[in-house]
Amino acid sequence: MGDIAGIAAGRLSADELSENFEDMYPPLDPRQAHIEASRCYFCYDAPCMEACPTGIDIPNFIRKIQTGNYRGSAVDILNENIMGGACARVCPTEILCEEACVRTAQESKPVTIGKLQRFATDWLMDKGEQPFERAAETGKHIAVVGAGPAGLSAAHRLSMLGHQVTVYEAKEKAGGLNEYGIAAYKVPHNFAQEEVDFILSLGGIAVEYGKALGRDISLSGLKEDHDAVFFGGGLGAVRSLGLEGEVLQGVYNAVDYIAQLRQSETKTDLAIGRKVVVIGGGNTAIDMAVQAKRLGAEDVTLVYRRGPEAMSATHHEQEYAQINGVTIKHYAKPSKILSSDGVVTGMAFEYTAVDADGRMNGTGETFTVQANMIFKAIGQVFVPDPVTESAACLDVREGRIVVDDTKATSVPGIYAGGDCILGGEDLTVTAVQDGKLAAHAIDEYLKG
Amino acid sequence: MADLSYDFIGIKTPNPFWLASAPPTDKEINVVRAFEAGWGGVVWKTLGEDPPVVNVSSRYGAINYNGQRMAGLNNIELITDRPLDVNLEEITRVKKNWPDRAIIVSLMVPCEEEPWRKILARVAETGADGVELNFGCPHGMSERGMGSAVGQVPEYVEMVAAWCKKHTDMSVIVKLTPNITDVRMSARAAVRGGADAVSLINTINSIVNIDLDIMAPTPTVDGKGAHGGYCGPAVKPIALNMVAEIARDPECQNIPISGIGGISNWRDAAEFISLGCGTVQVCTAAMHHGFKIVDDMKTGLSNWMDSKGYKSIDDFRGLASGNVTDWNQLNMNYDVKALIDQDKCIKCGLCHIACEDTSHQAITAGRVKGDRHYEVVDQECVGCNLCALVCPVDECISMVQVDNGKPYMNWNQDPRNPHRSAAE
Question: Which of A44, A295, A364, B56 lies at a CB distance of 3.0 to 4.6 Å from A272, suitable for a disulfide?
Fold first, then answer.
């Protein structure tokens, strides 16, 4: 992006930037962890476990923290969720395990399960130990497409089961959204790559970078050369607003900007506008708005067309944006990109209302927000082309791959998981679970 | 407002809260600070013969529970390690400056009459209100034939108590060791020896932890540890039982009791007093939080007494001891069943798993419209209380009495008892 009016890098000093992109929440020290762990009631048939997409035995891992059995605790977590470290940081626990925690019902103050999970997994990863071992070699070779959470999870479990795995990744680094898509302060200190290294330290997994499906490799080719294929590709395209001027200087895709931000070590090279508008209601929108603020933007306005409860970002995330100085405007939809001499100057919005049938309509009233930068974060879509080639055409519905309970696609020997599948929840934790389930299903499939 | 003052065997104290003979009462500076904070009295840390003992470095160990420090404390410190003259001079001065407070001097000398006679004469000159015979310390001094080595032999307890009564006009309190099988034996011996009161419990023989890295007990002195004396909140139940046993023993003849053992707040104190104690002695709680805790003890006890209409300590002292009985006197026809308040239930399932795994399979775990639901099976419930104890929600599980219309019947009368007395 060019250095245009109102957009500049280095609005804050290097020290301020480094502080702003530090850990969102400091880790628990052992004493804090013990006290927090002692708040867990060790419920029978614990509601938190049921709420965890990967089914971690939460009371058991918490009890092990309490007794100082940190290794046992971490192994419990990682055995169900090899990206337990990332999930401890990025899971929306407030709508998963911590919402289900009986202490939420009792006193609106759940056990901070996510922080405890981080305590245990950090302890193990800091030891530099890979706690799992590979089973005897099966002689089978499985291709995994995409080195995001789903792909890495599948790869790790497949390797544990004794299979050789080659992961094909289009980008230069593995980790998927953990590396490119999540707010920097949620996974600081190069955590995503440390986790990738940790997963790969099991052995039996080769990663080929710069290999994109449909460009360098094909599904049918992979199927040909391997005993099975797991597809864990992400959402490759961004929805557009459908307004004139989306190509103007000053209009950006939030995901692209965040990817760039994540790859910047110091954040001093990132140009940000004085006045920023973010369109959308999901985690990407929140992450973008907060990071814009933390880069030094003066005014950040997040605009969403419906009410707070309809946002896919959790209440907790919305609140986090607000305490970071982001203004959230609900019930307004973009109507026009305002510009002068080909440069964005603001955005016009129309107020909306939701009728009795839940339909959202414009009210005709409008307002404008000044902006040097407009970020679009209104959702991403799966690009099905590479998985629908005639030689290996997966069943795709509503723009996503159809799978069964075992994550098997319509083509025998090809499995899929993560954001690309129908019913995918756009959560790291569900992607990890998909990969794990698929790995076991592939193992069964290969045993015939 | 309730009157907290008390006359304990002729020793007047403005409130029943005394500091026990222990590190907090070793020196004038500590005792003055305690009196400034409002403590009713102190039992000065045990004096012995000169030359004074020598203490080791690294003296205390503790049990932490769920992040809570010092649920139990263990101590291998001996009696005072300061010269007798220094202590006596300080006691004299403190008593002179604080005439309204109780000062009792703890003593421990070899088990011969002459040393006791000599030290009692010296203590009498200080103006102290009484002496407490330390027959309790389980560590160090017992190896030298003192402390619990005396307290564990009722004949010695009686003999030394009698010497003390013979050689002094001061009140004599015998401090009892819990490191025996039946505390009544030593209490009865104290009564026979003419003691004015007993105080209990002293600390319990203990190894509080093993350091698994160096494979030695804590506190560790250069790689080794010795058993010490256990005290703090963890020992309160043991102390309460021993107090109750003495309070209801006819042979103990209602000997006045100063209660000791894990007393940390006014409620603990009220429990000891309800079993018959006239004063209570505190140590670990003060060592944990400082002397200021006495403020809550005094106001808490006073407010509670007001709420119950008790005007003085004697108004409720001993009210509970009559309700401590032998098992064979309990009513076999009394029947309670657990009742779960479903509106308060937070679905933790602890009542179910406790009953299912370890008791009587009397609480079912099911789902109602997808929600966890726990229900008591009355026919299976024996009324053991376990579910109500594990339930983390106050008043969610109550134990409700079944009105079965049956009269009182104890085990001696119960036809199911093959050894029941023929009196029926």
Answer: A295
